[in-house]
Amino acid sequence: MARDACPFGLCDGSGFIIGDDLTAADCQCRAQRVARARSRSLSAVIPRKYRHVAFERPPISDLPEPIVRQVRGYVRKIDEHLQAGEGLWLFGDVGTGKTSLAMLVSQHAIDAGHSVAIYSLPRLLAEIRDTYEDDAEHSYVQLLDRLASVDLLHIDDVGAERTSPWVLEQLYAIVNARYEEERAVLITTNLERDALAEQITERTVSRLEEMCEILPLFGEDRRRQRFEAPAEIKVQATRA
Ligand SMILES: Nc1ncnc2c1ncn2[C@@H]1O[C@H](COP(=O)(O)OP(=O)(O)OP(=O)(O)O)[C@@H](O)[C@H]1O
Ligand SMILES: [Mg+2]
Ligand SMILES: [Zn+2]
User: Fold this and answer.
1) Which of 21, 87, 177, 197 has its CA 20 to 30 A from that of 148?
2) Any idea of the CA torsion for 12, 15, 18, 22, to the nearest 10 degrees?
């Protein structure tokens, strides 16, 4: 892997300074390098569908103005919000632009140099489950450590699946670790608060509620198309 030059001009880009006695000491840039490597190994990729979302373009420009204004205000002060551990909870009907808005927030966080991990809840739970396998690539502790330390943890579609008590306990551990460290989470969900609590436990939802500003998005499903056949096809169908 190509090494980035040392931002302090101290080391050779390795993150270590070799002394005259050939012992290695941590360079000032090492903490930064570790954080960056960590977020690279996490899922920090905006899915293709949402890669070009922007405030100026549909669908964002067509979403309810008060909600878009709040999200705009949030990303304008993204550094302060992430520093303070303040996140967003986008909640509402299917196909109303929740994921689009959330990806826009993550994109701004990444552009501002923050480490971001983006998961759908089912994928995150699957990854937790995988760490439980004997031949797991990463241990659960490593995964938890990384998920607890990114600047922003973005979980899409929270409550989309039912899962085992063991996995729910791990999800709680992740949320609680971030809660205690005052690190921000960004979530989207279709479920009402109480239905969500039933799926992912009251304790987890209670913490998320405190950590996030809740933004409701309601309306018709924008993915929806007409399933009604044109009149001439209907006539043919009745004849047959
Ligand atoms: N106000 C809107 N006007 C036009 N298209 C929109 C609008 N809101 C969303 N869309 C489009 O509808 C589709 C669904 O958007 P998105 O994935 O953000 O919804 P969602 O609320 O996350 O849905 P789900 O609850 O199913 O996860 C996308 O193709 C998006 O571009
Ligand atoms: Mg969505
Ligand atoms: Zn250095």
Assistant:
1) 197
2) -130
Amino acid letter for position 30: R
Ligand nearest to the CA of 31: 3
Q: For residue 155, list its beta bridge partners.
A: 119, 187
202-211 vs 193-200: helix crossing angle, rounded to 10: 130
Instruction: Give nearest CA residue, ligand 1 atom 8.
Output: 97
CA 128/CA 170 separation, integer angstroms = 7
Q: What is the pLDDT of residues 30-66, one digit of tens each?
A: 887 777 666 555 566 788 899 899 999 999 999 999 9
Give the number of the ligand closest to the Cα of residue 104.
1
- One CATH from 1.10.10.60, 3.30.70.20, 3.40.50.300, 2.60.290.11 for 48-217: 3.40.50.300
Q: What is the pLDDT of residues 125-178, one digit of tens each?
A: 888 888 877 776 677 788 888 899 899 999 998 877 777 888 789 889 999 999
